[in-house]
Amino acid sequence: MITPEAELETNWTSLARAMSSLLAGVQCWTTKHVVGMCGVGNSADSAACPCCGDFEDHLHVPRCTAPLASAEWDCRTASLGQWLDTQVTDPAIKHTLLYLLQGVRDPSLPRSQLVPVRLCQAFLSQQRIGYQGLLEGRLSVQWTPLQEQYLQSRGSQRSPTLWVSRLLHQLILLGFHMWEHRNSVQHSEDNVQLRERSRLVNDGIHSQFDKGPTDLPKVVRRMLAVKRQTALIKPLVNREEWLKLVAALWRLNAVLFTASSSSSSSYYYY
Ligand SMILES: [Zn+2]
Known about the structure:
Elements: H1 4-9, H2 12-20, H3 24-34, H4 60-63, H5 67-86, H6 91-105, H7 120-129, H8 131-135, H9 143-153, H10 160-186, H11 192-210, H12 218-223, H13 228-232, H14 236-269
Helix pairs in contact: 2-10, 5-6, 5-10, 9-10, 11-14
């Protein structure tokens, strides 16, 4: 929900410029993301985040505190800091923007008391727009004149409006890359649901090997001829199939054993 005050303070002109510089797929994602229409937390199987297992909506993706998601966020924000340096950004603006970005993950964190006085109005304006607004390309109009002053103080001919639209481009990509990272986890064995399946199947494999070589049916012994570690590093689907097959062979062996015992008994009685 964008308040009328925040709407007036948002640099829409630069956002339009930044959007036109993005690939069509990212433009589409940004538009959907702003209205919460991203494909998260609504799969047929689970509404849980694939990284941490918590309930997931589109706001959760950059906020996820799972170690992998946190590492991705730290890496992306560090890259943004380096990018800001290459764009001759006022160091105080750089630190304040990165400080505001921390508010995406922990809204209680950024406090105006820790911001240089000359940046306080821009900081408060950005707070009114919202931390999440940073990842959706909604930057306060107050940053442009501040960067312009810095460039002038250095005698730079760089354009502050170009700086803003390029910054918006980077901020939108930051949110997009977090979403891509979430999707990569969703389809990997780091997925929290798949991790549980992986743990269960590994327990099953261990118990098969722990039974030891004695008294095993010949067919199962052949299955266990591989090294335990080799069985454990196979892809999840292969491990599950392997375990199912070994369990089926055990069952088959039990049935055959029962049948042969009962036929021996029958012979004895007749
Ligand atoms: Zn999560």
